[in-house]
Amino acid sequence: MRVVVPFDATTPKTRLEDTLEPQERAAFAEAMLADVLAALEETGADPEVLSTGPVNTELPVTIDERPLTQAVNAQLAEASPPMAVVMADLALGTPTAFARLLDASGDVVLVPGRGGGTNAFVSRHPDFRVDYHGVSIRDHRETAAAIGASVSEIDSARLSTDIDKRADLPEVLLRGQGRARDWLAERFNITVTDGRVGVERRSMQSDPSE
Amino acid sequence: MRVVVPFDATTPKTRLEDTLEPQERAAFAEAMLADVLAALEETGADPEVLSTGPVNTELPVTIDERPLTQAVNAQLAEASPPMAVVMADLALGTPTAFARLLDASGDVVLVPGRGGGTNAFVSRHPDFRVDYHGVSIRDHRETAAAIGASVSEIDSARLSTDIDKRADLPEVLLRGQGRARDWLAERFNITVTDGRVGVERRSMQSDPSE
Q1: Is the peptide bond before B67 cis (omega within 30 degrees of 0)?
Q2: Best label site of A39, A95, B108, B188, fewest CB within 10 Å?
Q3: What torsion, rounded to 10 degrees, do the Cα atoms A70, A71, A75, A78 define?
Q4: Interface test with B, best of A114, A168, A189 (most B CBs within 10 A)
Q5: Distances (CA, A) of A45 to A71, A157, A171, A180, B24
Q6: Residue B48: which H helix or E strand, with range?
Q7: How does DSSP assign B122-159, residue by residue?
Q8: Cα–chain center distance at A197
């Protein structure tokens, strides 16, 4: 099965602009991409990248500068099913979690993202197309029903947690295992304020209390 | 196995005070509790409630006015393992998801909550105790290791999504199936603003466009 990982190489992770500098956002996004690709490869899949621009990987890369929805639909239109599409910011993804997606039955297998998105899917139906705008998981359920495709959903916190805003970063520190977790842990600590978990940037000075 | 569901009958869901009136918070909390209990019963379990005060259920209720950590530890101390403890606000929980928890192997089986919490666990070790303050999932992993208990974790978005703040409510509308979802859907709509999903209260007037 083709396993396609879309990647925004142009302006990655803009919703993290309150926390990370532009160069940091690019580095963090690349670390997450590398983790996702490595975990997919460990399942036995041969993932490829669908990127808006050049990206640092030895895996196959297709460049498509169009917005995500159009670029993914072009891939769906040009190849025969099945195809999997996995977002590049699933930094908690493990081989076990991705195998649950790739091995699940159903004409269309959806992974809902927190906040109404669609973090990954498998399509085995030639007419399935995506629209990532708005509440895409609801739209994708309706699209699948409209074309007569059977739908199943994967219940995985690891795959439902896409990392795109500050409130997601504690999840990477607490549950991540790869490059993205290490990159973040070098720069940020977990904090607890009024019982709520967050992150704060580590002091640039060495801290003798640590 | 004893399956205990702690419930705050006194001041439930205070973090939803920006969205729901006190009576609404009580009603919504009771709807979530009823959903959790029903889903647990469908797995074949006999859940019981550990409440800070009277609660409307036909299932067994133990009243313990102490804070959550002390009340749960009292239950762990007084009964022989195994015991499961499941939070009452897991409104996305299904029988399938709860069965994954109850059937998993491990001396201690943990369900991390988004934000560092511990949404549910099974303990088969007589010395396991809880501390729900701070980043409890991290503490519970360390506690289990310290007593020599084997640890496993359940990867379920349904069980990792506890519902306690406004940003959690779209998840109930998009993925919930029970009383809590119906209660919320009668009062709130999904909104999309700048690509981000939220909720807004339905108009009290009938809306001819609907």
Answers
A1: no
A2: A95
A3: 60
A4: A114
A5: 21, 21, 26, 21, 48
A6: strand B47-51
A7: EE-STT-----SSSHHHHHHHHHHHTT--EEE---HHH
A8: 22
- Measure CB to CB from residue B115 to each of A155, A159, A170 and give the nearest one: A170
User: Are the Cβ atoms of B114 and A158 closer than 8 angstroms?
Assistant: no
What are the tokens at A203? 């002091």
What's the ipTM?
0.94
Going from the C-alpha of A87 to that of each of A99, A186, A187, B99, B150, the distances in angstroms are: 15, 24, 24, 29, 33
Interface of A with B (CB under 8 A): 94, 96-97, 112, 114-116, 133-135, 137-138, 155-161, 170-171, 174-175, 190, 192, 195-197
Instruction: Reply yes or no: is the peptide bond before residue B170 cis, omega within 30 of 0.
Output: no
Q: Which of A174, A181, A188, A200 to mutate to test the interface with B (most CBs of B within 10 A)?
A: A174
User: What SS3 state is found at A65?
Assistant: coil
Per-residue pLDDT reduced to its tens digit, A118-139: 999 999 999 999 999 999 999 9
Tokens of B128: 């396991």
Looking at the DSSP bridge assignments, the partners of residue A193 are A196
Return the structure tokens found at B36.
């959790």
**3-state DSSP call for residue A178?**
coil
Give residue-wise pLDDT tens across range B147-189.
999 999 999 999 999 999 999 999 999 999 999 999 999 999 9
Instruction: Tell me how far CA of residue B208 lies from CA of A108, B187, B203, B205, in angstroms.
Output: 35, 16, 11, 9
Nearest to A170 among B116, B174, B192 (CB): B116
Could you tell me the two tokens for A13? 């992770």
Query: Would you call B122 exposed, middle or buried from its count of C-beta atoms within 10 A (0-12, 13-18, 19+)?
Result: buried
Residue in B135, B156, B160 nearest the CB of A197: B135
